[in-house]
Amino acid sequence: MPALLLAARGAVHRSARTGALRGGRGSAASRRRAQPGLVEGADLDRVWGGASVYDVDLDQERAAVGFWLASRARGRSVATRTLRLLSRWAFDQLAVARLELTCAPDNVASQRVADRCGFVREGVLRSHMRFQGERRDTVVFSLLPGELR
Ligand SMILES: CC(C)(COP(=O)(O)OP(=O)(O)OC[C@H]1O[C@@H](n2cnc3c(N)ncnc32)[C@H](O)[C@@H]1OP(=O)(O)O)[C@@H](O)C(=O)NCCC(=O)NCCS
């Protein structure tokens, strides 16, 4: 069972009073990236993948989540468990009201993982970004606090 290490930086800090991780306030603190690393429990030097909470906007109470796994770690529901942990952390500790997840339309594995966790597919941003010399669509999912599965 891998462990999720939270290596938060920027305005995301631990409260001296409650011990909880909290985000800062104000425009300079509104876009922060917390970057957990995913490591195998039996061997802390062996990284399985990564996951992050990014585009944190505390004024609007929303953030985005992303993740990746090394090929040896795939196919074992690790991404699903990671996304659940990260989403719960973001709702509880950053107090966001909306989490966004985006991926390429052909990234079926990511979309399955998002669906398993309760993310709702909102639609497609057409010609959203440059990718390998072409323009690429992006699929957008979102999760609200009561929807996490
Ligand atoms: C996305 C990623 C983390 C998922 O890894 P994983 O946890 O091992 O996912 P799984 O292999 O368990 O697959 C999840 C689901 O997708 C399905 N799937 C996986 N690859 C597939 C493919 N090429 N075509 C169709 N379905 C696929 C699996 O069958 C599974 O379906 P199920 O829920 O019905 O069982 C991993 O593929 C990855 O790191 N990809 C590269 C980085 C990336 O895309 N990150 C996400 C950006 S948002």
Report the uncertain regions: 7-32
The quaternary state of the protein chains shown equals: single chain
Ligands bound to this protein structure: coenzyme A
> How large is the radius of gyration?
16 Å
DSSP summary: helix tally: 2
CATH topology: Aminopeptidase
- CATH level-4 homologous superfamily: Gcn5-related N-acetyltransferase (GNAT)
**Broad shape:** globular
Mean pLDDT level: 81
Q: How many separate domains?
A: 1
Which class do the helix and strand fractions yield?
alpha+beta
- Give, in order, the helices and strands: EEEEEEHEHEE
**CATH architecture type:** 3-Layer(aba) Sandwich
Distance between the termini: 19 Å
Question: Count the strands?
Answer: 9
Protein name: GNAT family N-acetyltransferase
Keywords: Acyltransferase, Transferase
EC number: 2.3.-.-
GO molecular function, one term: acyltransferase activity
Quickly list its features:
149 residues; alpha+beta; two-stranded antiparallel ribbon; 2 helices; 17% helix; binds coenzyme A
Secondary structure: elements and pairs:
Blueprint: E1 3-5, E2 13-14, E3 21-22, E4 37-40, E5 43-57, E6 62-69, H1 78-93, E7 98-103, H2 108-116, E8 120-131, E9 134-143
Parallel strand pairs: 6-7
Antiparallel strand pairs: 1-4, 2-3, 4-5, 5-6, 7-9, 8-9
Bound molecules: coenzyme A.
Q: What does the model show?
A:
The protein has a single domain, classed as Gcn5-related N-acetyltransferase (GNAT) (Aminopeptidase, 3-Layer(aba) Sandwich), CATH 3.40.630. Helices cover 17% and strands 42% of the residues. The chain contains two helices and nine strands; from the N terminus they run E-E-E-E-E-E-H-E-H-E-E. The strands form two sheets. It has a seven-stranded mixed beta sheet, with helices on one face. A two-stranded antiparallel ribbon has the order 2-3. The model is unreliable at 7-32 (pLDDT under 50). The longest helix is centred in the middle third of the chain and has 16 residues, at 78-93. The protein has helices at 78-93, 108-116, and strands spanning 3-5, 13-14, 21-22, 37-40, 43-57, 62-69, 98-103, 120-131, 134-143. The radius of gyration is 16 Å and the shape is globular. Strand 6 (62-69), helix 1 (78-93) and strand 7 (98-103) form a beta-alpha-beta unit. The protein is an alpha+beta fold and 149 residues long. Bound molecules: coenzyme A. Coenzyme A (COA) is lined by residues 66-69, 74-75, 77-79, 101, 103, 107-110, 112-113, 116.
